[in-house]
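Appendix B, record 7
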Amino acid sequence: MSKSDYAENKILDHLNGKTSFTMPTAYVALFTAAPSDAGGGTEVSGGSYARVATSGATWAAASGGSTSNAAAVTFPTATASWGTVTHYATFDASTSGNMLRWAPLTASKTIGSGDTASFAIGALTQTED
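Structure tokens (predicted):
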């Protein structure tokens, strides 16, 4: 998983005592084209898509430089095709906001009308190197 340029700068400033970094509420977003550390990519839109808010309870405590979701992350049921989802990211807002981290899914998922995208416990992994 990669950190966004925004998150890298916030962490550096925080660790070097320049400014505090307020813990964000992380929202999981889905993408049909890869984002990068600078942002971009193609986030799903339309068809009742909405980012999913997570909390500290959603994620397992980090160990060995890694964490994963400790609870299922379930999106609203699609009312139109969302296409083939290939990546996910976390943001600090339910819309717009700043991308924090992003990663490819271990397997792409095609989401059609009537489908519910859901990620089982352990399916979304975040690592630090």
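Remarks on this record: The chain has a mean pLDDT of 95. The CA atoms of residues 64 and 91 lie 23 Å apart.
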